[in-house]
Design a protein that fits this description.
Layout: H1 3-26, H2 33-43, H3 48-51, E1 55-59, H4 65-73, E2 77-82, H5 85-95, H6 100-103, E3 106-110, E4 127-133, H7 142-153, E5 156-167, H8 173-176, E6 179-180, E7 196-203, E8 206-213, H9 217-226, E9 230-237, E10 245-251, E11 286-291
Parallel strand pairs: 1-2, 1-4, 2-3, 4-5
Antiparallel strand pairs: 5-10, 6-7, 7-8, 9-10, 9-11
């Protein structure tokens, strides 16, 4: 994909959240079931003392729903990164409703995942959990997605877990009706990569377009391998059908296992510094988890 096309698609998503941030966040008042499932794993079987030492980084944090839930549960450090000033302002506003001891655990940072220096404001300590819910499918180009995952893998603590979710909108006939042709953006199929789409969104009389990549399980596995991570679990959740998102959990290789073909710290700086991040949280439904033995 040409750099000019990558920039154009990224700007499309950035402008969507400039115009629709509050409206979009209002349409998702609760955590998606799949997100709740992951958060339950973070806090399961942990004493308050152990939770107080747990460090969580979330990219594409939006208005901070996951961070507030983790803070209430007693997680010691949560850092949320997002490229939308409006969503971060909303996140900070809602955090004022937390008990002071809980709100002190939360820190929000304005950052574009694909800026070369996006990690500069992060704490130096590695994270026990890294969350990327509905983020990667909004990043234009396979090269950009791989670079971001490699950068995140390099910030994962030994024994830590990275959880991503990827929207599977083609599993819904209703969502399929939102797909628009590339001429709406003055582009053609030849300008984009396989699995790239543009979808419309409408609520309360306002409309917008977003770039979305159909990031399936096979591609998620390939990204994990390139980042030197191993997939440890996959499950489907969200939407009325309970399968509108794939959740993929990854960890560094266990002792004695070989890493992927690329060192996980490679490509920490993006070759696409102008790109923007985005997010899209789905609601309702979930199905079984599949522990991964591959």
């Amino acid at each position: 994909m040409e750099l000019s096309t990558v920039q154009r698609l990224a700007e499309l998503n950035r402008q969507f959240y400039v115009e629709q941030a509050e409206n979009f966040a209002d349409s998702r008042p609760r955590l998606a079931p799949g997100v709740e499932r992951v958060l339950a794993q973070i806090t399961a079987d942990q004493s308050l003392q152990a939770l107080s030492r747990r460090r969580v980084l979330e990219v594409g944090c939006g208005d901070g729903k996951a961070g507030r839930a983790l803070a209430r549960a007693g997680v010691g450090v949560y850092v949320g990164v997002d490229s939308s000033p409006a969503l971060l302002e909303r996140a900070r506003r809602y955090c004022q409703q937390l008990e002071p001891a809980n709100s002190a655990a939360i820190n929000f940072i304005l950052g574009d995942l694909l800026d070369a220096d996006w990690t500069r404001g992060l704490p130096p300590e590695p994270s026990d959990w890294i969350l990327a819910f509905s983020v990667f499918h909004h990043l234009p180009s396979q090269a950009a997605r791989s670079a971001v995952l490699c950068a995140l893998a390099g910030r994962l603590a030994s024994g830590g877990t990275l959880a991503m979710s990827n929207w599977q909108f083609t599993r819904s006939a209703r969502l399929g009706e939102r797909i628009r042709g590339w001429p709406a953006l003055g582009l053609t199929e030849a300008d984009v990569e396989p699995g790239d789409y543009v979808l419309d969104w409408e609520r309360k009389g306002t409309r917008g377009l977003r770039y979305v990549h159909l990031l399936d399980e096979a591609e998620a596995r390939a990204l994990a391998e390139a980042a030197g991570l191993r997939v440890v679990a996959v499950f489907r959740a969200d939407g009325l059908s309970g399968d509108l998102a794939d959740y993929v959990l990854m960890q560094p290789p266990a002792a004695g296992q070989r890493p992927g073909p690329h060192d996980r710290s490679a490509a920490a700086a993006s070759p696409r510094p102008e790109l923007a991040t985005a997010r899209d949280t789905r609601a309702s439904g979930q199905v079984e988890e599949r522990p991964d033995s591959r």
